[in-house]
Task: structure prediction
Amino acid sequence: MFSRFFIERPRFALVLCIILVLVGVISLYKLPVAEYPEITPPQLYISANYTGASADVVMQTVAIPLEDKINGVDDLLYFSSTCGNDGAYSCTVTFKSGTDSDIAMVNLQNAVKRAEAKLPSEVTKTGISVEKRGSDILAMFTFLTDGQNMNLMQLHNYIESNVKDAITRLDGVSSAELMSGIGIKKEAQEKVFEPFIQQDALRDSHAYKGSGLGLAITKRLINCMNGTISLESDIGKGCEFVVELRDITYVGALPAAVEATPVIPEEKMESFRVLLVDDIPLNLRVLKAMLQKLGIECQTANSGKEAIEILRNDHGFNALLTDMWMPEMNGAELAAAIHHEFSNVTFPIVAVTADTEAGANFSKEHFAGILLKPLTVEKLQKLFSKLKKKESGWSVI
Result:
């Protein structure tokens, strides 16, 4: 037998055993050994931004096309996504345990690429990022300065150029974010609560985005509650807003009645022509896309003055939808100017605003109703069904 060969030659067998042990010890340091087995399933993160769009618009135009393609990715376990009213979209995609994260990332990037043809151009221009990262924060570091050897702006620039990139390059770190307040200049603090006021840029072109309406609307709401809002700011450190409400009596939480929203079937209105007025081009494009889905023909104007010029040459509109908060000529001033200059214009004028107190802040004399943001196709269909039937009376939709 084969074993008899080694039994009759013990010295040869001993030398062979020693050689095998030495080869095993030497090879031990060359073998790839995982310190911990992969128990948690790998996760990838998708992010995109649709500037100016509401959460509902982001869901309809970004989330649904992307997630329709993500569903077919190999080894997909589940995914969860969120849409924000700031136009942000994020999605965490989880794969089965043991899935190679590099292969999963390639498959996910291919799925996102297939979905880009159905996404708005504003989203594809800013880019859709696919990253290897989880939803947890690994660590937070605080950097301070006494303001003598280095001011806050210099500290910000130093961290941006020397620290942030170095941390991002560490193994296991997906990304690093730098958070710091910019503050509001003293000369701008008096006007910052006025509509369309930003401290150093035009509306919708600011480096930090925004339209210059948030604080104006906030102050009006606080005034309606007999309160005050004050501002304290240090350049480079940030701002602190203090809201004081007087004579507030706590009565406890009131039970809210849940009412199901009826599903309204789409009704095409090909005979309708609508003039849309808004100073933000993106808002016009989103609203126009919604109305075209209902078969409504649209023409757009970027200001009240442009809308009046259009009406001087064309009176064939069935309705006019105007934003209430616009520089130079707001929605109420536009409606009054139309009724003053064009006595033969009989189409309804509808205010489009996110200000729930617009009925109290502006005169309702020249308006047929208010369309509250965020806008949906269902809201628009309800409005134009009412206008088509020529129902009278003030309405808020």
In short: Residues 200-211, 257-266 have pLDDT under 50 and may be disordered. The chain has four domains: 43-131, 138-180, 186-245, 273-396. DSSP finds twelve helices and twelve strands in the chain.
